[in-house]
Write a structure and sequence with these properties.
The chain is mainly beta. This is Secreted protein.
């Protein structure tokens, strides 16, 4: 094979690559990575644990409107607006979504002193079989509210954990 044929072949391959890449779309953040829309949510109080002891608590249901923006599949942030009258930031870390908010007057001590709580929702997409499914529009996880240690004269952080579920409304 002559040098001119090899050179001509290399030029043809390089030209095809340039033409092929010139039509490629620029990299942009994908909307499919985030959580966007209106969702029905439920925290199941029948399976609540207070400081790791099962104790029935009131269940909560609400509707959330979620808006997120992503720069990668693992880096998203946005806002949750609840029909319960609050809004909070939402973000993702290591495949889990987090919603964190302060709950004023979460609990009351025996003397009537109010205790503020930090409520953290940890959620992830789940398939019909209960396993993680990144393509799912349904989410499950945990709703945890924790008060400050030492509140109500006890050297223990009061913590309530409930199973959480979210699906498109």
């Amino acid at each position: 094979m002559s040098v001119s044929r090899v050179s001509a072949g290399a030029v043809a391959i390089a030209a095809a690559a340039v033409v092929g890449l010139s039509g490629a779309a620029p990299a942009v953040a994908g909307e499919q990575w985030g959580i966007n829309g209106t969702f029905a949510t439920s925290s199941n109080g029948e399976w609540a644990r207070i400081n790791d002891r099962y104790e029935n608590q009131p269940s909560t249901r609400s509707t959330w409107t979620i808006s997120t923006q992503c720069i990668s599949p693992t880096e998203c942030s946005g806002t949750v607006n609840s029909d319960a009258g609050w809004n909070a930031p939402i973000y993702t870390t290591n495949g889990l979504w987090y919603v964190k908010r302060v709950v004023p007057n979460w609990r009351f001590c025996a003397d009537g002193t109010p205790v503020e709580g930090m409520q953290i929702y940890k959620i992830y997409p789940v398939g019909f079989d209960g396993h993680v499914d990144l393509a799912s529009t349904e989410y499950t996880g945990e709703d945890v509210t924790t008060g400050p240690s030492g509140s109500c004269g006890r050297n223990q952080w009061p913590a309530v954990r409930m199973p959480f579920y979210m699906r498109p409304a």
